[in-house]
Amino acid sequence: MSALVITNARIVDPASMTDTRGAVLVEDGLISDIDTAGTPGAPQGAEIIDARGLVLAPGLIDMRVFVGEPGKEYRETLQSAGEAAAAGGVTSFVMMPDTTPAVDDGALVDFLVRRAEATSQVRVLPAAAITKGLAGAEITEFGLLQEAGAVCFSDGKQSIQSSALLRAAFTYAANFDMPVAHLPFDKGLTGDGVMNEGLFATILGLKGIPREAETIPLARDLQLALLTGVKYHAAQISTAGSVSLVREAKQKSNRVTAGVSINNLTLNENDVGRYRTYFKLATPLRTEDDRLAVIEGLRSGVIDTIHSDHDPQDTEVKRQPFAEASDGAIGLETLLAAALRLVHNGDVDLMTVLRAMTFRPAQILGLPTGRIARGAPADLVLVDLDYPWQVKETELRSRSRNTAFEGARLAGKAMRTIVGGKTVFELSEEALA
Amino acid sequence: MAQSSPANASGDLPGRLAGFPPFSQRHLISIADLAQHEIVELLDRAERMIPVSRQERKSLSTLSGKTQINLFFEPSTRTQSSFEIAGKRLGALVVNMSVRTSSVTKGETLIDTAATLNAMRPDVLVVRHSAAGAVELLSQKVGCSVINAGDGAHEHPTQALLDALTIRQHKGRIAGLTVAICGDIANSRVARSNLLLLGALNVRTRVIAPKTLLPAGIEQLATEVFTDMEEGLKGVDVVMMLRLQHERANGKMIPSVREYYRFYGLDAAKLKNAKPDVIVMHPGPMNRGVEIDPAIADGPRSVITDQVEMGVAVRMAVLDALLPDSNGAPR
User: Fold this and answer.
1) Are residue A357 and residue A422 in the same domain, yes or no?
2) Is the Cβ pair B132, A208 closer than 8 Å?
3) How many CB pairs under 8 A join A and B?
4) What residues make up the domain containing A389?
5) What is the pTM of this model?
6) Could you tell me the Gene Ontology terms of the biological process aspect for this record (chain A) (predicted)?
7) pLDDT higher than 80, residue A254
8) Contact A203, A276 (CB under 8 A)
């Protein structure tokens, strides 16, 4: 029996909404005791970690991560994504099905589960495709995919255009009580747009993506969600209008949730500057007004989850003229620190930010993690909220370098990341010195 | 047009323009990068280049021994030949490269070509590309000066400079005039560069177009926005027409060419609203009967061929300003 005691910690548990000093006892990978009075009776031979007052939170659960395995291993493998996640305090991530081939078959889910087990330091939760080949034409075998280990359904970067097909998918998913995380965007309105529509795109001579390319399909999604009773998660929203739509839908149903990318919470269209392609994202960076609206959505509980939208792209496809460059930015390793920026700025309190990256994703996906409670898996992160560091793309653990935070000075970092009672990351002594 | 004295009349080194400080920019990517005084200086320099092309011997030696590569990823006859003639009249060795691109390999070709050409040690690259920002990206990859000859719907800075020079030659001034830019504003790099340049020189700018061809936020770039052409032309000093790409009139943005011509084609009736001494401009190539009546295009108010002449002068001035003197003087 392996045992671990983390003493002298500031235990922040977004499940119980408590923020207390104390110690946590971990036995056989599970949290076996929480003592807010003194030190729990440590079994003999237990490893003891003195947290020195650092925040001890549930490990983060990132709802939207793209990995290059299988098919584009040069961009990211399950192993490299796992290392990046561990260094960022992320102990579980939902892996989008946008691989080559797409994860639309039970055998592929099974492959991912086994492969992740063998190579990844953190838990990999496969999302299975809603439609075969992510083509938006035929639904996949939801039941078999669920049995194989898929945690939810998503068409990843794709958005289903046919309302009839989406209705069928929602209805069938409700049959298996599986959550569907769908990205709302209208292909026609998006056209060949490459950034947010507005003055800034006009000055750069770039085609814009109107906000309505998100709000129109989102309104449809929400109505179909209410109609079918599916557990619907708006995978990624970015506009003020979307926040209003979700707020309205939530008044009618508690089975509707919404997620936001850390990019849309902390960056805006001005960051594109002069054609900086690391800021070219499929859900584009919007105006400052939209950014403030999604922050307000997070604060008021309309937005449930914050994810990294980690999307590794190699230099070759990013060092292109803006309109021709690929979308996406990596983010597993910077998610926590970037989210803490919102806390340091006074935009959102620590509990709300952590809850959106721990307990809420766990609730939506029906996971036992995301909480500091007796019997829960010991997925934990020790966080120094003020640890100053500068993002250097060459030092990040992802195989790809396309960070939107290159050079950013951030405060806050995972000092130690624990998955199932086992330390998978610890900030090195040199970094601490 | 006003006549200027020959550039080398004051006993300078052959072809060198006296009286100008070294130019502060290395590249010309965007009008937005230029301060007002730099725009004026380029126009002054260009004015001094006009007589060179009108002389019997049209050659200067300013750029002798220098290599200019015209790298065109998008076909262009007039801009490319204008840059070629400008470079040759200054004594540079000019090489034209037209790069055919498939959409798949477009970007790859750009970066690879940049590295290859850079190794040949040119002194200046003149680049046109179909993607906004492509010329700027390329300028980060090479060790020489880069001139933007048009990047997507972003900018075409030498076009705006030659337009301004044409206006100055005809009107004797630029500030205080009212200039209307008409047509496909949304997809036009010429419109963007002109709005920036004219705005910097205190011109009242108007854009006139159907709403489907007006980009978001245009009211912050132009002084006034009109959808009624007759209204928009009232009292203007200058009309700049833009080319309508035929594929825009396919029922997606514009229902038909004839409807476009009815409401946004420049004809005598509409032009009557402008000042009597209005000048009519067009960056070319023109679609007669689509955006402009042939009678206007070839009529007395048209200065379209003057624009072509000013184009050579402006490009000579830009090359001369950006490149250090062959005779060793600093830039």
Assistant:
1) no
2) no
3) 77
4) 4-56+377-397+410-432
5) 0.93
6) purine nucleobase catabolic process; pyrimidine nucleotide biosynthetic process
7) yes
8) no
